[in-house]
Amino acid sequence: MNKKHLSDLKDGQTAMVKKLLSTGRMRRRLQDIGLIEGTEVECLQKGPGGDPVAYLIRGAVIALRSEDSSKVLVF
Description:
Layout: E1 4-5, E2 14-20, H1 24-32, E3 40-46, E4 53-57, E5 60-64, H2 66-69, E6 72-74
Antiparallel strand pairs: 1-6, 2-3, 2-6, 3-4, 4-5
């Protein structure tokens, strides 16, 4: 089974959060911005060089580094 991470999304693609792989403070931060199981996320635009990436999460536009978004499993 191939794992798909939030960082794998292309501009305009949407996915649902399946699981957070991070722990501690980063896990809490991701949860605080709305990345919890079942949340729909849309990749809006990648920054210059591909980082950071703007995502639409629960009506808010949030920029995440690839390092952080790679710790979010989606389907």
